[in-house]
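Hi D.,

Good news: the full-assembly prediction came through. Inputs first.
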Amino acid sequence: MIISKKDIPAFLDGLMAEYRVFAPVKTGTYTMFQQLKAGAEAVLDYSNTKIPPKGILFPQSEKLFTYSLTGEGAKVEEVIDAAQSVVFGIRPCDARSIALLDNVFNNDKYQDPYYLTRRANTVLVGVGCNDPCSTCFCASVGSGPFDTAGLDLLLVDTGEAYVVETVSEKGRELAAKAGLTAAGDAAQAAAARVKEEAAVTSAVSTDGLKAKLDVNFYDGIWDLIHEKCLGCGACTYSCPTCHCFDIVDDATGTDGCRIRNWDSCMFPLFTMHGSGHNPRTSGKERYRNRVMHKFKYFVDNFEAVACVGCGRCINNCPVNLDIREVLADIRGSEARLDK
Amino acid sequence: MKNPYLPLPMKMVKNFTETEDKLIHSFTMEFLSEEDEKSFAYLPGQFAEVCVFGKGEAPFGIASSPTEKGFLKFSVARVGVVSTAMHLMEDNTMIGVRGPLGNSYPIERLKGKNTVIIGGGFAFTTLRSLATYILHPDNRGDFGALTVIYGARNPGLLLYKDELKEWEARSDINLVCTIDRPVDGWDGKVGFVPTVTKEVAPPADENTIAIICGPPAMIKFTMPVLEELGYKPEQTIMSLENRMKCGIGMCGRCNVGGKYVCKDGPVFTRAELNQLPNEY
Amino acid sequence: MQNITNLVQDAAKKLLEDKTVDLVVGFSGGSLPLRSTPCFIRTPEDTAKLVWDLSCENNLANYLRKKNQKIGVVAKGCDTRSIVALIKENQIDRDKVYIIGVPCSGMVDRNKVEQLLEGKELLEITRDGDTLALKGKGFSKTAGISELLHNSCRSCGHPNPVLFDQMIGEPVAAGEVDTFADITEMEAKAAADRRAFFTDQFSKCIRCYACRNACPMCYCEECFVDCSTPEWIGKTIDPQDSMLFQIGRVFHLAGRCVDCGACERACPMGINLTLLNRKLVKDVKDLFGAEAGLSLDDKAVLDTFAPDDPQPFLVKE
Amino acid sequence: MKSLLEYAGVEEGRVNFSWVSAAEGGRFAELVKDVTEKVKDLGPNKGLIEKRIEV
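Then the structure:
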């Protein structure tokens, strides 16, 4: 199928009659995913949004339930968002991150109804990257500029129009509803050519990385790697696969609600016990855990690296602690398992 | 889809000051209906998130045993927002409980075996649940000999004093309580848990399992003693504590290596822990 | 700049060879254009990594607190002011730091570059005198360096190190005395307009606390924003909470903030923190004539009391 | 504090400070009365930010 670029605003306006539509919108010097008020707001020739779109399915602050206390008991009402949504113009790396998050919110024992309900009711329409940034290393972590993991539809930019590839049944339905026309052979060929030409310039070798992480927990390299880290949450909040959260109450009188907020493993209080004991005492342990979680623990649990190579942590870090360099250093480190 | 974040409303019927220093209170909570109770089927070793509406929720090991019907019991030290609110709570207040969460002590594995329970301080809660479970007339025949070694700084800090007295009188449990320093009026053992364990714990054989729960210093010094007595890592069972929020393996903070204490634990064998980093 | 880089390297090399220090904290080339990065040098050979350029923007005073080693630090004017302030608060032992002072003519603001390039990606820079050539895929632009400097650098009144053991290069001419024109302009606006401005700024906040962590003066073991008993501030991304956090932080920095701008530079979301923080810097200067971190001898301004301290805040009776 | 809060958009007059000695009971009462009236006139607090977001 195919859709002309000039038809995109009208196409989005059409979708908005039935769905909440989220797309990248220009805000200041960067782009952010926002709910559209008009189809014309969407920009598709962006590099990466400042903050990933994971917040559409897993908001930074989210009400879990409200309650009110009565003399007899407590009335608890869950707040589940079941609206139909379309995320338009999501990059393949971000879509892949959502496929990875599915593992977390639907684990071997529990299901998270907030995330999973939104996930079931959301169609992800991706746009491939003809021109990846210098910080994009998606191709090194099992993804690529036209990866379809997690997507329902993929748009390939061929200049005047997008060639639309169907990835899932959900995507097929959406395309059929919107009445997209079939793409001719020439357009198909153009799309294939674009895919071939797009090159990811940045690479980080991950050969043997997992094997090294299996054995280097006690290596001295961890004392050095985190040294310049300030311990803020810029990397975790701009990471599409980070999923840690905190749960707090907000109440006035007998009524209140329980809220969950994104949290960061880089903060000291994240793991602090009530007794004051902290299993991850310093920045060293916290940074090690972050790297281990993404490149070892997640692999052990779900057979995939919890990094999609979007490069946001590289751009957003206030001290330029570059994960590509960290991984290269780790690959060169010694094995040390003794405590 | 069952929502694992929703608390079950319960009535806290008794707020009881457990220790002489008043830092630990035990709370008895009643289910509001039989259905609620049925939905909360648990085993010794599991924990639950107790929620004080308006303050938040915090995880505590369940101190009651599933053989005790109609209520749940928790023993809670006053450390944070939720536990402080609980300590100040009057009897018959509404409270929420979310669970049961986590795995349990390996009841099936313990059947037909001799069990040594070693506890220190106020980490005796889920151990009390296990001992009570084993001692119940319906279950006692399924298990072998039961030894319980329980230490505290002084007699006033022992939890469940009335019950300890009852246990002492029974012939189907060997209870050894110990305190750190001699005090007038105490005719039990005096000495730290590791030393006492060395004296009274049965040497390990194929048929014995040790379950240990207590403050880090006690664990650190008891482990070598158990090794000396011949307990293999597979025969030594521990219950971990880490800071938790969700209790269902999603919020990310309680991990020890790739395992989540809330979802994959809190009960691990020493052999399993040897494979993991020491972040607990 | 190349010249200064060499001098910094030589100085660091000598310090490590003499064993005057165990470690030198400086800057090395980063992984992105216009992005030098803090680095930790332990051997004389490694000093070749050190650089000095237009993007040494981090405040290295952050890495000196409560250390047991003797540390050499490459420090700009603002870094040395932070060091002075931290020595006065007993966070840094003067005998354990060796300050390699570098006069600073300002650091380039990547947000301004991004704005100039309209979001296109910068891949390469070359410097030619007072201008920078900015290159990317299929474009090239030049701009005067002075236009691209951080706001905090443009208003900087103390570009030369105020405390040092060794000075590299020639002192630069101090800019004009800071007139706080930006703050005066903001003060002149209607309350509703100011409120609207800050609401807009703080609705961008993601509560990552990069501002706090990048600030050398924000070193509390437990920050008031993290405290749960009592919970001073909500933890959601409500702009009201985010702003109250920043206002609280600004208060805690009253009379201590050296106006280095590290907080604003660290913000990944490009929030204008300067307009809030500098208000209090201005108030402290206007009311008490004091500026933080200039001398080891002054007492901290809010630690002193004089019967004739101005008190314009009192209720009119 | 007054200066910064008002700068950040809190209405003028909502934040008030004064020194009152423990011996000045009468003056304290007067002041509190004045300030209470002043704040009543301002009406409900619009806050630093007028509307809280829905989470």
